Amino acid sequence: MFNKRNTDWNLLAKHLAGETGELESSAVEKWLDKSPANRTLFKQLKSDWKMMDTMNKQFNVDNAWNKLHDRIITHEGFVSYERNDQGEIHHRSLTFMPLRIAASLLLIAVLGFSLVYLTGRYQNITVKTAANERLRQIELPDGTGVFLNSDTRISYPKRFRQHTREVTLTGEAFFEVSPDEVRPFLIHAEDADIKVLGTTFNVDTRSKLQGVEVYVTSGIVELSEAENQVNHILLHQGDLGTILMNRINITRSDNENPIAWKTGIMDFQDTRLSEAVKILNELYRVNIVCLEPGLDTTQTNGTYHYPEESLDQILAILCKQNGMKVEKSNNRIYLSK
């Protein structure tokens, strides 16, 4: 802790990093209240720390270290001035060893924390699911829950930055974002950026024909073009937003079929057969094809559950509803009248 003869630079650095407990934070506050000089020093150190905490911006790192060093060396009691025999004024560092040790401690402490917070802190973790892996759940450093579909890749830092929480996604994932009004949650997904404060939604980047899709199950989501943030739209519960070729579209979904891969629930209420087939293909990992023109626009009804109900059971019901028949050949399933 702090005492009358020196400053606990290690504790200051720890406090700046936000790693102090209640007792340690209380000790820092008491030290700050002792003198205006302490508050001035801490303010300067805090400013330098923030400068080093913005490694994503280009700046001179060595200059930041030098500034910290100068703060310490010129702190009250660290430097003195003397006049030599010729009348010239020189400054010299005091030889009071505890203060020199304290100065070294701060540099070592800041360097140590910087290695953690400016390299390890922002070092990315990458999670990738296999092509045959339907669902994997992970938790991000802020408590956000993410459900990954098959053949999906997500990258995120070990610790999020002070003012934002950013991840990169390729594939499909469902997010349950932990609320944080200070740090927005930002997803970089191909040609789209998705920004939220705390909500639940699905992101799908897999379709090159349909573009990036975002389906919102609760809250509000901002969907914008990655290269042009002015081009954006707000999505609410039940909205399905897409970005394709710099164009943003929004439609309404009366069911949660966009996340059937996660829930296992297929809710077909006057649903086009083409949509039903798309969901069945994904869940059961098959290739169903509508042979006849116009067959894909046929409407179908019913609620089904994966994996409790087999594909054959569901197809039998769909065929009975619409007067269709099923044929299997070359690893494909053909539907026809």
What's the short version?
The chain is 31% helix and 34% strand.
What does this structure look like?
With 337 residues, the protein is an alpha+beta fold. The protein folds into three domains: 9-120, no CATH class; 124-252, Jelly Rolls; 264-336, Phage tail protein beta-alpha-beta fold (3-Layer(bab) Sandwich). The chain contains eight helices and 21 strands. The chain has helices at 9-16, 22-34, 36-52, 61-73, 97-120, 260-263, 273-284, 311-322, and strands spanning 79-83, 89-93, 124-128, 136-139, 145-148, 153-157, 165-170, 172-176, 185-189, 192-196, 200-204, 212-218, 221-225, 228-235, 239-244, 247-252, 265-272, 288-290, 299-305, 325-329, 332-336. The chain has a seven-stranded mixed beta sheet, with no helix packed on it. A seven-stranded antiparallel beta sheet has the order 4-5-8-11-12-15-16, with no helix packed on it. A three-stranded mixed beta sheet has the order 18-21-20. Helix 2 (22-34) crosses helix 3 (36-52). The longest helix is centred in the first third of the chain and has 24 residues, at 97-120.
